[in-house]
Amino acid sequence: MSIFEVVRLLLDFGLVILIWLVQLVIYSAFPYYGHKELMLWHKKYTSRITLIVIPLMIGQLVISIIEILKNTSMFNIIICLSIYSIWIITFFFIVPIHKKINKSLYTPFALRKLIKINWLRTILWTLIFVLSLMQNMI
Is the pTM of this model over 0.90? Predict the structure, then answer.
């Protein structure tokens, strides 16, 4: 396994662990906070999690683009499209909900929507990790 493949696998693993924690622990706790407590926690949470998530997501995207350029296989296309889908879901659906929460414009419905939409990212990042792991085992 090359260093490139190791880095890819580590990024994929980091993101799959992170997304499951976000889905099962962090987002699922939001409805249990009082309004004031959620406002205080959410601002801290989003600034801190961004420092972890953005470098991992950018790294994963860059590696997927390099992989496509090196080898345009169906396997790499599926992974790349999954990563692009995650970016679209993140920046067109997840981030706007977080902005509403930060501005205190959220509703209980918005919190439930955040949890539901995030399942798509959870499934996609899990798929990417499993595919990446399988590719490195072959």
Answer: yes
Question: Tens-of-pLDDT digits for all 138 residues of the chain?
Answer: 788 889 999 999 999 999 999 999 999 999 999 999 999 999 999 999 999 999 999 999 999 999 999 989 999 999 999 999 999 999 999 999 999 999 999 999 999 999 999 999 999 999 999 999 998 886
Our CA angle for 83, 122, 24, nearest 5°, is: 150
| Closest by CA position to 57, among listed 76, 82, 39, 78 | 82
49, 54, 56, 58: CA torsion to nearest 10: 170
Q: What tokens does 121 get?
A: 């990212």
The position carrying tokens 């659906």 is: 93
The total number of residues written for the chain in this structure: 138
**12 closest CA partner among 54, 57, 66, 51:** 57
